[in-house]
User: Fold these one by one.
Assistant:
Number 1:
Amino acid sequence: MVNRLLKTTFLLLFLMASCSKEESLNESNIVISEAQRTPMSAMEVKTKIDESLQTKGSFNWKDASTHMLWSASVHGQNIITIGFGNNSNDFDRSKSTNNAAVQKQLLTIIQQYEGQALSEILINADPYLNLMDVVIKNQETLIALRQSKFIRYIEPGDFKYFALSDSIEKSDSSGTSSGCGFDATTLNVSDYTTVTPNAKAPWTFYQHNIPSAWNYSTGAGVTIGIVDTGTSPNQTLLGSNFNDGLSSGRTIQKFGVYVDSIWPWSTGTDGPNDQCGHGTSMASVAAAPRNDNGLPVGVAYNANLVTYRAASNVVLDGYHEQNGVKNAFTALGNNNNVKIISMSMGHIFSVGKISDGVKYAYNKGKLIFCAGGTSTSFTTFVGVIFPASMAETVAVTGVKEGTSNQACDVCHTGGKIEFTVAMQRNGSGNTVPVTSYYDNQSDYVGGSSVATATTAGIAALVWAKNPTWTRTQVLNKLRQSATYYPAKNSEYGYGNINALLAVQ
């Protein structure tokens, strides 16, 4: 009891001393040259980011000058995201005893330099993570905040990099800049095999021995979380007919955390329904039912699904999309039923709040698969995109038929890749058959997106076969069943997983 009292007293004294030191800052301590008082243009900020990406292969706002950071915020409604804590890994509020005091201290600094009431400054304080979104208009405020020992990161919260990137194709498998599409296509008969009771097993499944693995596991009892654009209300196989045919005794839950508004203060989401098409395709390849409808079956056709509409499309550009993804990860992290998370969206460089959300879910024991990147050859210089580039995620990319070291035409590769999925045919160039946005229709989907959802499905087969295993055991089994194990290819990781070996 005495030790606890001493620790509490020390903590209070430490915070009081820190507050006294940092709150003593005043504008006379900060001098900004005349040249730095005019913000850079949005394109100038983007150019600086691109220079870092091309020379270092990465970009992080912590390496940017305060002038650049401020300039970016000016072009993003003056919104700033602040990650705070006692050290770089202090992101979880439940494990941070002084988070309320630190947050109050930082808000006091902002009020001092902005001269505004708290209600005009604070947009949102995350309930699970040590981060908050605020409005900051003065460059001096950012300089003062960056001097605080409690700052983990400060980033512009609504700078839309991709909106400035007209010359860069941001396409996913759908062929549009957003990865969205509601197309339906008649499948080539050579791209599937009909399996009982009358389902189509995609050609790519045979590249990974998935149909043979079904003799041992179909994913029953495992729940996969899909962070994407939601699930179609017009595809009953991912709704009222989720349990049909050989798929039974499982559940699908749909949530929406994306706010479709230009205003950061808006909080009303637009619901769980997919308005893009991408999320529906990912849910389909992971766990579509195996029935007699004559449509493509999913890898883990007896697994449960929890889907999140976290963004409007696959390019996580802007405040509400990045906030939605962060909220989806924290929600899935708090869902004890979820073992696997699959996300086939991303950004070219790191986003602090998404990184915190991913780490939060990872620390809850989730096995997280993320897409390595899908684009034209012009942007493959970026390598593995974020958050697949994080240590807490498993990065997946797509390769051509019959290979594990020939990237698909639009797939990124790099040292962070763990696994590959054969998803592009050599002759026709066709990709992976999936159920479409509408009932009784099918389509093709490709890129690292479908590779990621496929791998998440294989992981569900393994975990269902070994329900007492930990995340590490499942991941190790996937590695041991892949092409290059025990070595690791410098661009393609462990290569293609043999699902049959993985479940034996």
Note: Residues 1-25, 167-177 have pLDDT under 50 and may be disordered.
Number 2:
Amino acid sequence: MMHRFVKGLLLGILFICSIGLLWFLVIQPFLTQKDAEHLKAQYSVLAPQTESAESNQDEGEKTQLDFASLRSHYPNVQGWLTIPGTCVDYPVVQSDADDPEYYLRRNYDGRWRLAGSLFFQYDCTPKSKNVVIFGHNMNDGTMFGVLEKLADQKFREQHSTIFLETEDGVREYQIASVLTTDLSRIPFNRTVFADEQDYLAFAGTMLEGTGYEPQAAKRLLTLVTCAYNWDGARTVVVAVEK
């Protein structure tokens, strides 16, 4: 009798653990993806057509985000990041210096989510010379789980463009490099520069060996997620404004 009881108890614990893993590793990331899709659908509006678009009958209707309405409900949503052809199509939020990782395990509306949100570093804006965005490296490939795939040249060539949409419009970036590094090697999260020469020197370090020439007028977009090569390692995608 005791043997059956222990066996049943162990099976019950195993079942509960399996359900827990399913919730954390599958359902939670799925909910995060669906949340983003719902938010984008809710606040998308038709983009004004240009003369060239009006003359092109084959061009489909384009949409843009109504940031005024979106931010009236979710004021911490500062932008929307998209890497076409990948799962990256998410809002980008931002908290302040008092709690810079507030959204590490929270959705754009503050609800707890294992995958958290993409978030701007607390001391940068979409207009910073180096725009820094963090996100989780999820095992299922969602959020910034795709960044390490961009280290593969063929995959990167097929997904080389990044769009960052904000209240000021859409900025397009070209991926220049994918690094596995840490802050002791490259200060990739710098957002404040003394002057133009200081920025150019920083950009030169970030773009070293890529063939890209640093330009004062061109922003960098730096996407950061965890890597597991060593303690403190990060996968860093560096993109240059087009």
Note: The longest strand covers residues 169-181.
Number 3:
Amino acid sequence: MQDFARHTAGMAQAQKSILITGCSTGIGRDAAETLHQKGWRVFAACRQKLDVEALVEQGLTDALQLDYEDESSI
């Protein structure tokens, strides 16, 4: 067991990922920004293209346009 612990101690932890919808404003946006700052890979979803572009400018490069009413965006 000690060999295993010693072997895995130097390995980098896998980056955590999350998909958050409603990231244009409010709780969704705050959650996306906070988790991104804490090192998570955040897939921040918004319905409007301009909101996605604003998130990308902030460094949330995995922001995406997604609207559950638009099947082609899913």
Note: The CA atoms of residues 22 and 28 lie 5 Å apart.
Number 4:
Amino acid sequence: FNGIADKTTWAFTTKALPATTSSVTVDDDGAADFRTVQGAINWVIKHCGTAGSDSACTGSSVAKTITIKNGTYDGELFIRNINNLTLTGESRDGVLVRSVNSEQYNPGTGGSKASPTTTSLAVAGGNRPRLDGGRAVLLVEGADLLTLNQFTLQNAHVKTSGYNNQAETIYYNSASLSGSRWMGTYMNFISTQDTIQTKGWMWIYKSLVAGDVDFIWGAVYGGLLEESELRTVVDTTNPSSGGYITEARTVKGFPGFVILNSLLTRE
């Protein structure tokens, strides 16, 4: 390819800026404010995060909304330093947010790091930089009153013998008695090992959480799973054996994980 030698062969325009800073729409066919979920998250955090540029929406009392139209959205997501944010899908089964990620590929539970290190990982084909945290599809830090509503969040990693196969859909890495709350309503959380890792306060309502080994875990103050289905799926590395549902590292004196009016099922 010899390149483009003139100013007219390749021309394009960019989409107009969203009309608002606090309410945007994502559609993978381009008929919205953004094509990617992370693009929308970046926009809202830039303007309405705790250090955002739009003082009218930075406070926790102002609701921020990202609406995701039906489609498939690949890639890891990062939400940091924003309060009262809702990600809501057009339909529970029609919106699929996913990535293939795991401890063997991107080690660590997900805490922020200032600079990368280099490691050798067989699944990645050799040495590469990493940030010691990112095996979940969605990493959340410094975000109170986060709501995930009506879509599917999937870590599509397939377990392999000989690897550490921890692969969360979400790691909610915020722990404050008065400011670390998140909800998952009418959701599908689908992975195998360690589907949900959380701190703080969690409420999962009328949702599906699927995994095979202690797939709901973390150091919560309180995590209520209400009117939901907790489904043990087949462990491809050990098909004859089931696994624990929770691994609670509960803070002393607090409720920990509570399963209320829910179904415990298996594939």
Note: The longest strand covers residues 220-226.
